[in-house]
Amino acid sequence: MNELRRFRVVFEEEASEFVVAQTKRLRRKILDITYAVAASPFAESDYVLPDAEGRSISHVITEGYVISYWTDAPAKRVVIVEIEHDT
Q1: How confident is the model at residue 2 (pLDDT cuts 50, 70, 90)?
Q2: Which is nearest to 41 in space by CA: 64, 7, 5?
Q3: Residue 61: other Cβ atoms inside 10 A
């Protein structure tokens, strides 16, 4: 029986630098959030804005962070482009 492949989480440079700069506890929290996004990549986000190339970037606000991402359905991946503290 074939299992459906889950979506992978991929971090662009700016997002990965944000994660690496955090404490171990906060890194784990952020990774858990991004894995939850990847588990439901087509769930309704808080808002969507286009990037410089016109790609729709979804933004989820949760647990004190804004996670910005786009979904690459053919490759089954969620690309995290930016992570910010929700202030």
Answers
A1: very low
A2: 7
A3: 13
Structure tokens at 10: 């991929």
- pLDDT tens string 21-42: 999 999 999 999 999 999 999 9
Residue 16 tokens read as: 């990965």
In a domain, 68, yes or no: yes
State pTM to two decimals.
Answer: 0.89
For CA atoms 62, 14, 39, 56, the dihedral sign is positive
Domain of 67, CATH number, reads 3.30.2310.20
Alpha-carbon separation of residue 86 from 16, 24, 47, 59, 66 (angstroms): 17, 19, 14, 11, 6
Whether 2 maps to a domain, the answer reads no
Question: Whole domain around residue 13: which residue ranges?
Answer: 8-85
